[in-house]
Every structure is written in structure tokens, then in C-alpha cells.
Amino acid sequence: MTLSPTFIGVLVAVCGNSLIGVSFPLTRMAHEQNTDKKHYVTLPLWRFAMVLCTIGELGNLVAYSLARPSLVSPLGAVSVVVNSIASWYFIGETLSWVTAAGSALCIGGGVGVVHVAASQGQNAFVTLVEFNRLVKQPEFAMFITLVIVGSVVLIASK
Fold this sequence. Notes:
It contains 7 helices and no strands.
């Protein structure tokens, strides 16, 4: 069984963005644990978090070389979702329904964009006529309605 470069690129992007999402709460944890007020660059946890972030960004670079940007870019939302979970786990931030709903919107949007991009095959460019046809599809109307309603509810709840 041979895996396609596109599949490997998407997998590398998910892994890389997951590492980036974990690195942010770890850097904050390092700053919060720095009671001696040492320079943050000398803190082992901060350095570890920066290594994770660097590896994640290198993973994104590799992913862009294996898969089209229209597939890799939306997967940056993975880091937002992983960050919210890692922040809860490492530094005790609360996971509210707003965080869960925002994460669901990120996941849904990423899956939707990747699905549409993958269905385009190797044709990375869409003409204006094709774009108009795609925008008039019921799937797009459902997606954009869900995003708008979800966003309004999340903004209004703050």
C-alpha cells in the first residue's frame, strides 16, 4: 500500500499544527513557573516549547511541498483546537461551551475547505464561472449559514 504525497502532506500538516498548538500553553506555563524572574530563554520548558513550535513549523513547510496550499492552509485551525485542549490540560484554563463551539466551527470549516479542495483534484484554480456555480450549491449555503449563525451566537455570548 503506497500513500500519496498529498495524504502524507495533510498528515504532516495536522501533526505539525498539533505541535504548534501544544507549544503555546507550554510557553505560558514556563513564564508562570518563572518565580525567580530568570530570563525566559534560560528556562528548559520554554526551550522545549520553542523546539516543538519549530518542529511544527518545519512540518508545515514539508506539508506545503507535498500538498497544495488549499489543502494545507485550512489545517492551521488544528492548532487552535489543540491549543484550547492543551491550555485546559497544562495550565488549567476552563473549557466553556463557547470554546467548544468555536473549536467545532474551526473543525467544520477546515474539513469543509479540505473536502472541497480535495474534490477539485489537481485543478488548483477555479474560474469565476465555476466559483459562481459552487457558491450557488446548497452545501455552501448550509455551510455559510452555519458559520454566520455560529459566529453571531459566539460573539453575542461574550
